[in-house]
Design goal:
The chain is built from 2 helices and no strands. It is mainly α. The chain starts with a helix and ends in a 13-residue tail after the last helix.
């Protein structure tokens, strides 16, 4: 599991070129992950289950 998490973190980190500034990259990565957590929490509160979405149109 650790190898998968490391690969995911490295992939996300490499999506944005910050010219080697690791502190800015860490802040951006944490902010993006926090935004996802907040979005899922708010969606769940309103009865939306974002983890169940797929490409089908109901």
């Amino acid at each position: 599991m650790t190898m998968v998490n490391k690969a995911v973190a490295e992939t996300i980190y490499n999506m944005v070129d910050l010219r080697g500034d690791s502190s800015d990259a860490l802040i951006i990565l944490c902010a993006a992950l926090f935004a996802v957590i907040i979005w899922v929490t708010v969606a769940s509160y309103f009865g939306i289950k974002p983890w169940l979405f797929n490409n089908k149109i109901n």
